[in-house]
Design a protein that fits this description.
This protein is α+β, with helices and mostly antiparallel strands and 163 residues long. The chain contains 4 helices and 5 strands, in the order H-H-H-H-E-E-E-E-E.
Length: 163
């Protein structure tokens, strides 16, 4: 009878260890899926933004801006200025772009005088132009943040940027 109790205790201990191990594994699996999904959504919105910009569809790209960006640029002004600068001044109708892998960042303030955003993904975009002024690249840090359940695009206006 004494052996039986020791066996039951060992089985209970092993069961408890197994259950705790499965809970930990489940936690990290779910956490990884959420991070992966957010990262994928951030990439998707930034790529959609620059796909619209490539096509010269600046109105559609403006729609993908975060509200902080929409406050800074009114839609008609943004559309007119982007078309004027990139198409007329640069003498080009489109560009190619490359993106870096996203970097997850926390508590980032992109616009002075506004609250920090809790979680953003930083993606560096390199736009490649073949223009009447020769070939050149524009490198810009671009951020994606979730706002009201949708991922949106932001640019930084902090003077402390390395760029």
């Amino acid at each position: 009878m004494l052996r039986r109790r020791r066996g039951n205790g060992l089985i209970k201990l092993l069961t408890a260890v197994l259950v705790v191990g499965l809970i930990i594994l489940l936690f990290f699996s779910v956490r990884g899926m959420v991070k992966s999904t957010n990262e994928e959504e951030a990439i998707k919105i930034v790529e959609q933004f620059y796909d619209y910009e490539q096509e010269g569809d600046f109105g559609s790209s403006w729609e993908l801006f975060h509200s902080l960006m929409k406050e800074r640029y009114k839609k008609p002004d943004y559309v007119q200025t982007r078309a004027h600068v990139f198409m007329q001044h640069f003498g080009t109708n489109t560009f190619q772009y490359e993106r870096s892998e996203p970097e997850r960042k926390f508590d980032v303030q992109l616009v002075e005088g506004t609250d920090a955003l809790k979680e953003v993904y930083l993606i560096t975009i390199t736009q490649i132009y073949h223009s009447s002024f020769g070939n050149f690249k524009i490198v810009q840090p671009v951020y994606a943040a979730e706002e009201s359940g949708n991922w949106r695009v932001l640019w930084s206006f902090q003077k402390s940027e390395d760029f």
